[in-house]
Design a protein that fits this description.
166 residues; alpha/beta; Trna Endonuclease, Chain: A, domain 1; 6 strands; 28% strand
Amino acid sequence: MKTLDVEIAVMEYLDVRRNIVVPNVFWGMPGLSYEADVISLTPSGYATEIEIKVSKSDLLRDKRKRHNHKSKLFKYLYFAVPEKLQNTALEVIPERAGLLVVVENNYGTYSVRNIKKVREAECNKMVQCWDYPRRFKLAKLGAMRILSLKMALKNREKGKENDCEM
């Protein structure tokens, strides 16, 4: 399972119709000193960070990060991993972190990925509610991500058209 597969499953799970959900947030986010793989912001202004890991080595390396995923910006911290990493994740992720496991069910050429919450995250008592300028900034970063993805898709389609001309 690839990072993108886990990211999509997590974003669907976080209910993009109700919450602002943005992947790969770092640049331009005031108060954030490291990249968050996925941020989910509720209508009440509280954010959750989801750290995605798809290999055992990546999980183990995360323990060496100096920031240790500690931030007043996040009420909850979750790690999201493929099912095969569940036991390793439970051993190495911080005690305060929750765990989301992506379960893949294959039906021939069709597969479905669902999230199973294995462990609840502890509430960060030092969390700050996001003010409106910060909420707007996150929404703006999400919109910028959409534009860059659409441009990448357009370039990919253009490349396929060029392949057909040869």
